[in-house]
Amino acid sequence: xxxxxxxxxxxxxxxxxxxxxxxxxxxxxxxxxxxxxxxxxxxxxxxxxxxxxxxxxxxxxxxxxxxxxxxxxxxxxxxxxxxxxxxxxxxxxxxxxxxxxxxxxxxxxxxxxxxxxxxxxxxxxxxxxxxxxxxxxxxxxxxxxxxxxxxxxxxxxxxxxxxxxxxxxxxxxxxxxxxxxxxxxxxxxxxxxxxxxxxxxxxxxxxxxxxxxxxxxxxxxxxxxxxxxxxxxxxxxxxxxxxxxxxxxxxxxxxxxxxxxxxxxxxxxxxxxxxxxxxxxxxxxxxxxxxxxxxxxxxxxxxxxxxxxxxxxxxxxxxxxxxxxxxxxxxxxxxxxxxxxxxxxxxxxxxxxxxxxxxxxxxxxxxxxxxxxxxxxxxxxxxxxxxxxxxxxxxxxxxxxxxxxxxxxxxxxxxxxxx
Length: 419
Ligand code: NAP
Prior knowledge:
This protein has 14 helices and 17 strands. By secondary structure, it is α/β, with parallel strands linked by helices. The protein folds into three domains: 1-136 and 318-419, Isopropylmalate Dehydrogenase (3-Layer(aba) Sandwich); 139-156 and 199-315, 3-Layer(aba) Sandwich (Isopropylmalate Dehydrogenase), CATH 3.40.718; 163-197, no CATH class. β16 (387-388), α13 and β17 form a beta-alpha-beta unit. The longest helix is centred in the first third of the chain and has 18 residues, at 42-59. The mean pLDDT is 94.
C-alpha cells in the first residue's frame, strides 16, 4: 500500500495471520510496527517507548522497524482530519501497533478517537495487566497482592455511540416508541437525553473466550465475570449467563464454573483448572481492596471495565505505570491507560513506563516473551534504583528526578546489561 503522509520504513517485513481460526500470527524477526505517538505528552512518551522496545528487540536478536502513523492533533496538521483512513488501514494491515494517548474534548466536538479506533479496527477486548512493581509507592497496605488482568469489552454497552440528544426530533421519537409502543412510563417529563445499551451474545462470548484463553495460557486460577445483572437483567445479567455458557460448553475439564465446583467437587478445583465465577460490580469494587489476592482475570462489559480497571490501577501506584492493550482477532493495539496530560506536553517530564509496559504486552502478543521479560525487569530495576520521573520521585525521599528521555535511555541501557 502506498501512503500519502506515512513514511514506510526501508527495511522490515509484515506480520501476517498464520491461522484464520485461532488468530495466531506469523511474526518475522524484523517486523514493521506502526506507532502513533498521539497528542500532548504522547510526543514525549512515544519516542521513549521506541527506544526501550527497540533495545529489547535488539538484545534478543531481532529488530523492530517503526512506522509512524498519525491521529488527533498531528493528523489535523497533515491531513486536516482527526483519524485519517490511511492510519486505520496501516494499523489494520500490520496487525500489531503501539499508540500513545489521544485528546478527547468533553461534551462537544468530535467523538473519542480512541473509541473510534478500537471500534473501527474491531479491537474487542481492552486488556490491562495490573501488577505491582517494586519501588512504586501505593495508597494501599499490601499492593504486592494485586496481580490481576482485566478484560473489558470494547465495542458495545453504553459506549456503542447510540445516543439521542435532548431537544431533538430523534429523542422525542425514541421516547414515543418507548412510552407508546413499549408501554414504559418511567421517563420523567420534560427534556431528556437517551442512550442505548446493547450487549450481544457475539460481543460477550468472544470477550469471555479471550479472557479464558488468556487464563489457560498464563496459568491463572480464575476468571470472574463482573456485572450488574441484579439491576440490568437483560443486558448485564445476560452477559453473566452467556459468559457461563462459554465456560460450560466450549472448554473441557480445564474450565469449571464456581457452582459446579461446590456442588460436585466440594470446592476442590482440579489441578491446572480455571474456575469461572461471577461478582456484582459494586461488590467487586470493594473486593479489589479487601480481597485483592483472591482475584486473577476479570471479564466485564465496557462500562464496568472502565471503572474497575482504573480502580485496580490506582492500587498499584497510578497512571504513570499502568499499561494496557486492545486485542482483536489476530491483532493488538497496545496503549497506556493514561491520557494526554496536556499541561505537561513537550516538557520531557512524564513517566514513559506505562507506554513502555504496554509495549511489553505487545511483545508478548508477538510471542517475544524473552524481550517482554527484559522490558519488565529493566523498568522495575530502574524504579528500584530511585532514578525516576517526577510522579514517582515526589513519593519517595531517596529518589532522583529524571526527564522522560533520560529515564528511557537508562532503561534501555539496563536491558543491554540484563540480556
Ligand atoms: P490524563 O491525561 O491521564 O492526566 C491526568 C493526570 O494523571 C496528570 O495530570 C498526571 O497527574 C497523571 N499522569 C497522566 N499521565 C502520566 C504519565 N505518563 N506520567 C505521570 N503522570 C501521569 O487524564 P485527563 O487529564 O483526564 O485527560 C487528558 C486528555 O486525555 C483528555 O482529552 C482525555 O479524553 C484523554 N484521554 C485519552 C486516553 C487514551 O488515549 N487512551 C485515555 C484517557 C484520557 P499529576 O498532574 O497529578 O502528576
